[in-house]
Write a structure and sequence with these properties.
single chain, mainly beta, twelve-stranded antiparallel barrel, 13 strands
Length: about 240
């Protein structure tokens, strides 16, 4: 079973009633710029989850700066911790949906965890309410780069508020090392697209342990500036242990 098939089975076959995906509200009608920004955020959370899986959450507890910028065409870039740079590009848009690709520029690190050669593929449904993604990259382990992979399935829906539109998301992420599953993360997010003022984005992923408790949390949080379809985000990824 490939990574995407594995995670789809996990979501639709094994998830609990509070975590399963399902129709929850109107389609979000996100722009290509918003979709590119979202997958850049997804990629950074995936990398942090993989690093936490390899080195444990306690070794990377801190907050790390994040900048994401995307334009109306669906192109963009993001920088995590000043060292991990990813570029996003919309590669296809049809009546069935949209496809995006991400690549890493150079090598980067979190503390002493080095990452290189990140490549991601993300597919949105036509309405933009379902996202399926997979990625591969290398983490250095005892001086040797080892292949890791991630898979994600998310659902989005929109809520109209007096100040603008709020997007909500729920999903599940799996982390693999050389093709074998290593950890599972449940995730949710809220981000607002305001009519006038700046918005905000809070995206939380929780490590699920074998007894289904929360092992630790990764939180992407910051200011979300929306301008005619493009996005400029500045904030942090915060890693917290289970006790906080």
């Amino acid at each position: 079973m490939n990574h995407i098939a594995s995670i789809v089975f996990a979501v639709f076959g094994l998830c609990s009633s509070t975590a399963c995906l399902g129709a929850q509200g109107p389609s979000p009608n996100t722009t290509p710029g918003e979709q590119a920004a979202i997958i850049l955020g997804e990629a950074f959370v995936s990398l942090m989850a993989a690093i936490a899986t390899k080195s444990t959450c306690n070794n990377i507890i801190n907050r790390y700066g994040v900048t994401i910028h995307s334009d109306l065409s669906g192109s963009g870039y993001g920088i995590l911790n000043g060292t991990i740079k990813l570029e996003a590009q919309r590669t296809e848009s049809t009546t069935k949906g949209a496809k995006y690709q991400l690549i890493q520029i150079g090598e980067g690190s979190i503390v002493d965890n080095f990452v290189k050669d990140y490549k991601g593929e993300f597919n949105y449904s036509f309405k933009g309410d379902i996202l399926i993604g997979k990625s591969s990259f290398y983490q250095k382990n005892f001086g040797v780069y080892v292949p890791w992979q991630t898979s994600v399935v998310d659902e989005f829906w929109g809520i109209t508020e007096s100040k603008g539109l709020k997007f909500k998301k729920s999903g599940i992420r799996s982390i693999f090392q050389v093709g074998y599953p290593r950890s599972k993360w449940m995730q949710n997010s809220d981000h607002s697209r305001p009519n006038i003022d700046d918005g905000n984005w809070v995206y939380t992923a929780h490590l699920k342990t074998p007894n289904n408790t929360v092992g630790c949390s990764i939180i992407l949080s910051g200011k979300y500036d929306y301008n005619i379809g493009s996005v400029y985000f500045t904030g942090y990824i915060i890693v917290k242990p289970a006790t906080i």
